[in-house]
Amino acid sequence: MTSPEDSKRSWNMHNELITRQRDKFEIEFKMKHKDGHWVDILSRANAIFDENNKAVRVVGTHVDISERKKLENQLLQAQKMESIGTLAGGIAHEFNNILSIIVGNNELLMDELPEWSAARENSEEIRIAGLRAKDVVKQLLTFTRQDNAELKPIDISPIVKESIKLIRSSIPANINIHQNISKDTAPVSGNPTQINQILINLCSNAADAMKNKGNTIKISLSNESFDEGCKAVHPALSPGQYVKLMVIDTGSGMDNKTLDRIFEPYFTTKKIGKGTGIGLAIVHGIVERHSGVIFVKSAPNKGTTFTILFPAYQGQIEKDSDERTDLPTGNEKILFVDDEPVLLKLGKQRLELLGYHVQEHTDPREALKVFKEDINAFDLVITDMAMPHMTGDQLVSEILRLRPEIPTMLCTGYSENISVEKASEIGFKAFAMKPIDRSEFAVTVRKILDESQN
Ligand SMILES: Nc1ncnc2c1ncn2[C@@H]1O[C@H](COP(=O)(O)OP(=O)(O)O)[C@@H](O)[C@H]1O
Ligand SMILES: [Mg+2]
């Protein structure tokens, strides 16, 4: 069976052939296999004519070219991503320079404006918007692999397990997570925070796709090795050892038109406010940065499978103290503020895994209210910087006015604007850049708590 369009094209060509308007029949079309899936066919034929120039017979062949088509598509896809990447990278750099001028000048302006002037509030708005814009630029740079996240030989299975724990708490409870994580996967040259980011993005998409179903996300990690035949899996692969990460859902799936575009930055099919379209672009950038490949299989209403192959690292990994069991713990009470609910949940979960008691708020004004109710209820305050209604430094200035000795920590998504010096000038005891490394976070929290108790 073929589609009506294809059969019309084919029929027209057939007619041209037997009426000698063309001398060769050659056409590509899709045909439905008897088990239901579509196959790409290359059909070639010649006509045989009798002495009266009447076609008596058409002979030809049908060749299944599905594999070749798949490879051609993957190649086109890779080229497209490459050119979008170059474009986005160029824009990001150019934009970053302009932004630095805006933000820098605004800072100078702010220093001139007295606390009480209304213009200072406007200037503050400019500053917050500038910080947001910096975050956007940073995301774009991750997509174009131009970020400078450090890669080192790591064992990714504990990272995947840890990520799953964090994801569990941030997706709806009626969605199950089934994990099949092999213990002895090969080491990979990677960045733990970025691998965590991959899983968060893939799983939140999977959860979104299964909204009303209460289905299962399957996550698996295993070793995989390829010989010469690997090009059939993906043209960018070369023979060797890999670690394979798969995220499989049974959700809404995607049609080919959507599939073609999912890795483009800002491509989304979700409602405004629900999707930003940057998740998979970031995943793509991270996978490339790890010299890996990513591919997708999806069918509408059936579900989606994302497969990522990381090249195995050839050599030993040096054991460092990055193991979770070595992380310092505690049982103090922490007030945690971030306007982004997902980050808030993840941070809370991380701290709770370490033993701390956490009260979290997305609205800094709420947090301040709670703090005022009992200024001795908390041992530490951790806050985001750019938030609506009240920035992190404003919040902490208020808190320190009420209780000058309480330790405070700033977590921020940008670097240039608020330096370590500036943060400590405001009164912050510690400063961390997002995305925050798990062990660094644990160590810093313990350190400032200990310092405050001495
Ligand atoms: N597991 C999935 N199932 C169905 N569609 C998906 C899945 N993952 C991604 N998509 C599609 O890809 C688009 C882009 O995803 P992403 O880059 O993460 O941006 P966002 O989630 O903000 O829309 C989504 O809007 C959705 O249409
Ligand atoms: Mg997403």
From TrEMBL:
Q: Where are the transmembrane segments?
A: none
UniProt key word Lipoprotein: no
Look up the domain of life of the source: Bacteria
GO MF terms, alphabetically ordered: ATP binding; phosphorelay sensor kinase activity
Pfam families listed in its UniProt record = HATPase_c (PF02518), HisKA (PF00512), PAS_3 (PF08447), Response_reg (PF00072)
Start and end residues of each PAC domain: 25-77
> What SMART domains does this protein's entry cite?
HATPase_c, HisKA, PAC, REC
Q: Where is the Response regulatory domain?
A: 333-449
Q: Which residues carry this modification: 4-aspartylphosphate?
A: 384
Record CDD domains? HisKA, PAS
- For this UniProt record, give its keywords in alphabetical order, as a comma-separated list: ATP-binding, Kinase, Nucleotide-binding, Phosphoprotein, Transferase, Two-component regulatory system
> Which reaction does this chain catalyze?
ATP + protein L-histidine = ADP + protein N-phospho-L-histidine
All copies of the Histidine kinase domain together span 90-314
EC number per UniProt? 2.7.13.3
Extract the coiled-coil ranges from the record: none
InterPro entries under this entry? CheY-like_superfamily, HATPase_C_sf, HATPase_dom, His_kinase_dom, HisK_dim/P_dom, HisK_dim/P_sf, PAC, PAS
Reply yes or no: does the keyword ATP-binding apply.
Answer: yes
Give the protein's recorded name.
histidine kinase
